[in-house]
Design brief:
Layout: H1 3-28, H2 32-41, H3 46-63, H4 68-91, H5 100-114
């Protein structure tokens, strides 16, 4: 793996981890703004606890060495979670500004996954 690809991977992974960790914490503490957003989207507030826990666990998995299969599951989970958020915003007709955060996180998931080092890939 080239030095350039490693740098791209770590920048994308660090930003992704920061975004997922911060939103996971916000969801776990059930900030009022997050609770209101979930209700507008049609989800129960208890869903915040589930999403927050999985985000934080996913960040932990991405950053620790080894466990390549679990990393693939974390990437898949992040992809499904974020794409689901985008479609939820589309379903309720939210303004375009609501898509920026999830859209950016989705791009970071894809870039981090694509540029991950060979030691973090499943060898088939």
């Amino acid at each position: 793996m080239s030095k350039r690809n490693k740098i791209i991977y770590w920048i994308a992974t660090c930003w992704l981890s920061l975004g997922m960790l911060s939103t996971g914490i916000v969801q776990l503490i059930r900030m009022e703004e997050e609770v209101q957003k979930m209700e507008v989207l049609g989800y129960s507030p208890y869903f915040l606890t589930i999403i927050g826990c999985w985000k934080i666990l996913g960040v932990f998995v991405l950053l620790i060495p080894g466990y390549t299969l679990v990393k693939e599951w974390a990437y898949a989970g992040f992809f499904f979670l974020i794409s689901g958020a985008i479609f939820s915003h589309l379903a309720v007709g939210d303004p375009t500004v609501e898509y920026f955060g999830p859209g950016m996180l989705l791009v970071l998931v894809l870039v981090s996954w694509y540029f991950r080092p060979d030691g973090r890939k499943i060898n088939v």
